[in-house]
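Help needed: design a sequence for this.
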C-alpha cells in the first residue's frame, strides 16, 4: 500500500467515528421528525462505511469509479437529511444526521488526487449543503461547514501529495544505491579478470610488434573504454561531462571539470552528438590512429567544449567547397546542431597545426 496506507486507514477511522456520532445524534436527540427514516439513512451510511473501507484498502479498486460512487452515496445521504428532520430542519441545536460523515469522500478525493481534487470534492459537498439551506427560507445560510470542508480537502491533499513525492524520491534513491552496489560488484569481478587480460594482451602485443602490436592497441582501447564504463556513477540528467567521458579511448583524451556540467538534457545530447561528429571527421580525414583531445569547462555564462586533433589542418576553402559539393558533415552535424541549441561554433585551423573546433553554449537560468 506504500505511503498512502496510513492516510486510508486514517480516513477509515474517521468514517467509523463519524458514523458512531451520527448514531448518537439519532438516539439522543428528539429533534428528528421521522426517526424511522433516520434509521434507514443510518443503515445505508453503515453499509457504505464498511464497503468503502474495504474498497479503499484494495489498491486495484482505488480509482475514479469508486471515488464517484463514494461521492454519490454521500450526497444521497445528505439530501435525505431534510426528510429525516422534517419541520425541525435547521432548528437551533438540530444537526443534519450525516453532519460530519459527509467529509469522508472529500478526504478520499484529497488523498487520491492532491489538493486540487480535494478542493473539488469539498466544493461539490459544500454546494449540496448550501443548496439545501437556500431552498429553505427560514434556514440560516452558514458557510462554516463549507470552509472547513475546503480547508480539510486542500490541507490533506497537499500533505498526501508531499508524502507521495517523498516516497518516489526515496524509491529512486534506493534503486540508484542498489544499481551502484551491483556496478561495484561487477567492477570487482571485471577488474580481476577481463581488465587484467586486456592489459596483458596490450603489453605483449607491443613487445611482439607487427600485427600483434595492432591487436595490443585495440586491446588497450577496449581496456580504457571498459574501465571508464565501470567507473561511471549515476549522473544528473543533462550532465554533459558524463556524455563526453564516453568518448575517451586510447587515442582520445577527455578533460572535464570535477563537477557535473548540467545543461537541459536535449541540449546536452546535441552537444555530445556534435563532439562525436567532430571525432568522426578526425578519424576520416586524419586517420584512425590520430590523437584527439576533448576539453570542457563551464564559465559563468556559457559552457565551452573544444575538440583538437594532431592533423595537418584544413586547407583554406575546403569547408566552403564541401558545402557546395553537398558534403554537409561540418555544416549540419556540428554547426547546425549547435545553432539549433542556441550556441556557436568556431573552427581554428592552420596548415601543419591541426584543427580545433570550439563550441560555446550559453547557460540560461
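Sure. Designed sequence:
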Amino acid at each position: 500500500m506504500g505511503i498512502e496506507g496510513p492516510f486510508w486507514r486514517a480516513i477509515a477511522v474517521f468514517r467509523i467515528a463519524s458514523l458512531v456520532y451520527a448514531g448518537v445524534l439519532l438516539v439522543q436527540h428528539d429533534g428528528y421528525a421521522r426517526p424511522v427514516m433516520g434509521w434507514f439513512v443510518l443503515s445505508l451510511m453503515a453499509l457504505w462505511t464498511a464497503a468503502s473501507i474495504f474498497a479503499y484498502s484494495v489498491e486495484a479498486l482505488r480509482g475514479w469509479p469508486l471515488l464517484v460512487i463514494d461521492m454519490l452515496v454521500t450526497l444521497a445521504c445528505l439530501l435525505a437529511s431534510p426528510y429525516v428532520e422534517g419541520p425541525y430542519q435547521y432548528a437551533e441545536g438540530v444537526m443534519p444526521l450525516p453532519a460530519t460523515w459527509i467529509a469522508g469522500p472529500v478526504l478520499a478525493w484529497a488523498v487520491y488526487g492532491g489538493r486540487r481534487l480535494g478542493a473539488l470534492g469539498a466544493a461539490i459537498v459544500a454546494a449540496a449543503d448550501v443548496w439545501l439551506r437556500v431552498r429553505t427560507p427560514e434556514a440560516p445560510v452558514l458557510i462554516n461547514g463549507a470552509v472547513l470542508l475546503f480547508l480539510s480537502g486542500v490541507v490533506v491533499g497537499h500533505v498526501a501529495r508531499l508524502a507521495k513525492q517523498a516516497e518516489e524520491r526515496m524509491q529512486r534513491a534506493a534503486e540508484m544505491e542498489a544499481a551502484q552496489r551491483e556496478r561495484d560488484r561487477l567492477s570487482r569481478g571485471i577488474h580481476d579478470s577481463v581488465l587484467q587480460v586486456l592489459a596483458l594482451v596490450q603489453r605483449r602485443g607491443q613487445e611482439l610488434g607487427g600485427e600483434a602490436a595492432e591487436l595490443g592497441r585495440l586491446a588497450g582501447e577496449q581496456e580504457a573504454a571498459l574501465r571508464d564504463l565501470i567507473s561511471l556513477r549515476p549522473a544528473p540528467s543533462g550532465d554533459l561531462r558524463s556524455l563526453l567521458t564516453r568518448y575517451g579511448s586510447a587515442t582520445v583524451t577527455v578533460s572535464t571539470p570535477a563537477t557535473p556540467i548540467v545543461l537541459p538534457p536535449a541540449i546536452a545530447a546535441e552537444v555530445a552528438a556534435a563532439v562525436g561528429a567532430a571525432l568522426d571527421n578526425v578519424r576520416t580525414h586524419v586517420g584512425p590512429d590520430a590523437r584527439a583531445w576533448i576539453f570542457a569547462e563551464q564559465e559563468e555564462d556559457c559552457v565551452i567544449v573544444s575538440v583538437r586533433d594532431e592533423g595537418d589542418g584544413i586547407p583554406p576553402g575546403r569547408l566552403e567547397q564541401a558545402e557546395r559539393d553537398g558534403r554537409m558533415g561540418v555544416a549540419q552535424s556540428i554547426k547546425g546542431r549547435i545553432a539549433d541549441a542556441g550556441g556557436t561554433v568556431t573552427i581554428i585551423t592552420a596548415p601543419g597545426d591541426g584543427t580545433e573546433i570550439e563550441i560555446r553554449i550559453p547557460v540560461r537560468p
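The first strand starts at residue 252 and ends at 255.
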